[in-house]
Write a structure and sequence with these properties.
By secondary structure, the protein is α/β, with parallel strands linked by helices. The chain has helices at residues 5-26, 39-45, 74-91, 103-114, 139-143, 161-171, 189-198, 211-215, 251-257, 271-308, 330-337, 341-350, 364-369, 376-387, 394-401, and strands spanning 28-29, 59-61, 64-66, 95-97, 120-123, 146-149, 152-153, 158-159, 175-178, 202-206, 229-233, 244-248, 325-327, 353-354, 360-362. The chain has a domain at 42-281: Type I PLP-dependent aspartate aminotransferase-like (Major domain) (Aspartate Aminotransferase, domain 2, 3-Layer(aba) Sandwich). It is globular, with a radius of gyration of 22 Å.
């Protein structure tokens, strides 16, 4: 006998409540790709906006001119305008859109309208810590681009300034795309932008992982350092809803970008998400500098505490990081502890310490909870005991986590 619809609904409810309880009260989330939304942003995600449309595109039909195909949008359009204005202020560009549905969609929204098919782009390859979406078989194949690698330091995943400039001069690309999934240190952006612009190439800055740090002014200021377009996802170091945004200071580029979004990249842009994103942008105008600074301080303190306990990390000679990320060095981990990042990540999860299984540790969400650099030694002790020694630390993790019932940086 199978369960009926009512039974499945109850089961679904139990699963959601169990997830919320587990993630919200019992674990420390150290995933570099995730963050916690404020209660207000979460309320906006669950608002009536979730099922609504607006299409503010001027059209003419049946002898009539209209500025929006839908009625009932008087507040929706104002919400979008407010969020766009906040993004412009926060990222120092006069033109912004919060419509992209994700960081990946933001990349398509930026690249496709500005680079014709058969364009050549330079991007950081996955083996240098780059985003897999820029690898030859993915976005370049879909958009019919030729992609060439930007030189990076092995394992450190750091862009080599002189080699990158030389590659730009040799390849003469249409664009340089800077963006990484493994992202520890700022780019030599001024040098790269100067070389690219000398070749009439555009510079795109994918800030998906570091967007919250850029917003807080502690990483780099891409549009003022030479990037033509800034875009990224809004749910990693930036503590917003899953989605994306796009900002530029160049009216000539935005006039090509904005009209190319609707009916090409997407139609409905999910207005509850834009409301939640607008709320997060406004929150970071208030608390962004302190939040971002603490994220980096926590990452550096956690790196030092973990390294002192024998966990091999990249960048020990440079305080490990200037972002929210720490990177394990897998060959050394296997050599020292006898297993790799996937085994380590699974051991940590069983004890309520969440990371990915590829070797990144992030401090954005624990910073939102209120952990400070002085807490990182205790956190490192739990991580090493749970990972190396296979100790049962879950009760300690759960008890400590329950001390943080409200977010600090909102």
């Amino acid at each position: 006998m199978t369960d009926g619809p009512g039974d499945e609904e109850r089961r679904l409810g139990r699963l959601v409540r169990a997830h919320n309880r587990w993630r919200g009260r019992e674990v420390f989330n150290l995933l570099a790709s995730e963050n916690a939304l404020s209660p207000t942003a979460l309320r906006y995600l669950a608002s009536d906006l979730a099922g609504r449309y607006t299409l503010p595109v001027p059209t003419t039909a049946h002898g009539e001119t209209r500025t929006n195909d839908y009625g009932g949008t008087r507040y929706t359009d104002q919400i979008e305008a407010l969020a766009n204005a906040a993004a412009s202020r926060l990222f120092h560009g006069r033109f912004a859109t919060t419509r992209p549905l994700s960081g990946h969609i933001a990349a398509i929204s930026a690249l496709a309208p500005l680079l014709p098919r058969h364009s050549k782009i330079l991007a950081i390859p996955p083996e240098g810590g780059g985003y897999d979406g820029y690898a030859p078989g993915f976005l370049p194949a879909m958009l019919d681009y030729v992609v060439r690698p930007i030189p990076t330091v092995p394992l450190a995943n750091e862009v080599l300034a002189d080699a990158a400039v030389e590659e730009i001069r040799r390849e003469r690309p249409n664009a340089v795309v800077l963006g990484q999934s493994w992202f520890l240190f700022p780019y030599p952006l001024r040098e790269i932008a100067e070389a690219a612009h000398a070749q009439n190439a555009l510079v795109f800055y994918d800030a998906s992982h570091v967007l919250g740090l850029v917003a807080g002014g502690v990483f780099q200021d891409p549009l003022h350092e030479g990037a033509d377009v800034l875009y990224g996802s809004t749910h990693k170091s930036f503590p917003g809803p899953q989605g994306g945004l796009l900002v530029t200071d160049r009216e000539d580029l935005f006039s090509q970008l904005d009209p190319a979004l609707v009916w090409r990249v997407f139609d409905n842009a999910h207005w509850h998400r834009i409301a939640a994103l607008g709320q997060t942008l406004l929150e970071l105008e208030r608390v962004g500098p302190e939040y971002a600074r603490t994220v980096v301080e926590n990452a550096q303190a956690l790196g030092a505490a973990l390294a002192a306990r024998g966990l091999p990390l990249v960048g020990a000679d440079r305080q490990f990081t200037r972002s929210h990320q720490l990177h394990l060095t897998p060959p050394e981990l296997v050599s020292r502890w006898g297993f790799g990042p996937a085994t380590l990540g699974r051991r940590w999860e069983r004890q309520g310490l969440l990371t990915d299984l590829v070797g990144r540790i992030g401090t954005a969400e624990v910073t939102r909870l209120g952990l400070r650099p002085t807490d990182m030694d205790r956190l490192a002790d739990l991580l090493v005991r749970a990972g190396k020694d296979r100790a049962s630390v879950r009760p300690e993790v759960r008890d400590w986590r329950r001390e943080f019932r409200t977010l600090r940086f909102i």
